[in-house]
Amino acid sequence: MKDQTERVTHYETIFDELSAALRRVDEAVEALQTLRPLVGALDAYYTGEAWKADFAADEAGLLPPTLKRGVLSEDGVNDLLDGIRAVYDFAER
Q: How crowded is the C-beta side of 64, counted as CA atoms within 13 Å?
């Protein structure tokens, strides 16, 4: 009986941890769903002429050195958008 109690307790802990993780995923998916317009805006900026001009200005040293410029990181924006699209794809399954 002790082995069974320990086994059930062990798997109950796993069940609780996975349940909590799934709730967090659901909350994150819901948050990203409400942010779709912002995702679209960032994608349009990143694939448009304005981003290219801002990137070129940064490369030429024309932007203030104290300006936060994560949005000008090619890999950063691309990875962010790819990650969000993967979440959207996952949520649609």
A: 3
Token digits for 44?
Answer: 């349009």
Average pLDDT over residues 70-79: 95
Q: Is residue 81 within 8 Å of residue 43, measured between CB atoms? A: yes
Q: How confident is the model at residue 71 (pLDDT cuts 50, 70, 90)?
A: very high
Please give the structure tokens belonging to residue 38.
Answer: 């912002």
Same domain, 61 and 88: yes
Whether 74 and 50 map to the same domain: the answer is: yes
Q: Are residues 54 and 89 in the same domain?
A: yes
Give a three-class secondary structure readout of the chain: CHHHHHHHHHHHHHHHHHHHHHHHHHHHHHHHHHCHHHHHHHHHHHCCHHHHHHHHHHHCCCCCCCCCCHHHCHHHHHHHHHHHHHHHHHHHC
Same domain (yes/no): 7, 43: no
